[in-house]
Amino acid sequence: MTGCAELVRIAVIGDCPVFRHGISQLIGTAPDLDLIAAVPSIESADGSLRGAAVVLMDLQQSAPKLAATVARLRRGGHAVLVVSSSPQLDAVQVIQAGASGFLSREVGGEELLTAIRAVGAGDGYVSAPASHLLSRSPHFTKREQEILRLVAHGATDHEIADRLSISKHTVQSHLDRIGEKAGSRRRPQLTRLAVEHGLTDQAPELP
């Protein structure tokens, strides 16, 4: 499996052995993903994280410590996907620290694989209730908020167009305006923005 250059290399950090085992088995079912490490902590990883495009992390830590761990992994060049069932304010802190994605432990296997692939492709992905997140920004129109929510859930421009019954060109125009307001049009930054403004409270049904 490791000889295929197209594989997305994944490392798992989780302090629960059952979590590590379950995630390892799940990743093993995906022909496009390559699990290179499954360790209980970043300290125990030694050099085993080297080469991982995505680090999937589930650690029982306080929000500040979790954010520090995310920042450390980002400095190492890894995209980080955090799995947690902690209060959702944690989502804001880890996204601000540089995580590309945040998932509730309640998500199913297919959604978790979708999130890994999105983060591995350089996009963001968030799937978690956000009732306790920051208030929505008054600077975004209702349509812009809808598009930000869909971006946060990993939707492509084409999927957003289908979901909202608008053209792909219109979606891109909205994204351009959002990008002007946010200072960036990159997917991970827009995902971070959606989390910070409480736009991920309900997962939309994509076509």
Molecular structure report:
It is a single chain. The protein is an alpha/beta fold and 207 residues long. The two termini are 32 Å apart. It has a six-stranded parallel β-sheet with strand order 2-1-3-4-5-6, sandwiched between helices. Helix 3 runs antiparallel to helix 8 (187-196). Mean pLDDT is 81; it is low at 1-5 and 130-138. The protein folds into two domains: 8-127, Rossmann fold; 142-196, Winged helix-like DNA-binding domain superfamily/Winged helix DNA-binding domain (Arc Repressor Mutant, subunit A, Orthogonal Bundle), CATH 1.10.10.10. The protein has helices at residues 17-28, 63-75, 89-96, 109-120, 142-152, 157-164, 168-182, 187-196; strands at residues 8-14, 33-39, 54-58, 79-84, 101-104, 125-127.
Please give the order of strands in the largest beta sheet: 2-1-3-4-5-6
- Runs in which pLDDT lies below 50 for 5 or more consecutive residues are 1-5, 130-138
> Level of helix content?
40-55%
**What top-tier CATH class of the largest domain fits best?**
Alpha Beta
Tell me the radius of gyration.
17 Å
Q: Quickly count the helices.
A: 8
Counting DSSP E segments of at least 2 residues, the number of strands comes to 6
Distance between the termini: 32 Å
Can you tell me the number of structural domains? 2
Shape: globular
What's the main sheet like? 6 strands, parallel
Question: In the CATH scheme, what's the topology name of the largest domain?
Answer: Rossmann fold
CATH superfamily of the largest domain: Response regulator
CATH architecture descriptor of the largest domain? 3-Layer(aba) Sandwich
β-strand amount:
15-25%
The average pLDDT score comes to 81
Alpha-beta classification:
alpha/beta
Could you state the order of secondary-structure elements as H and E? Answer: EHEEHEHEHEHHHH
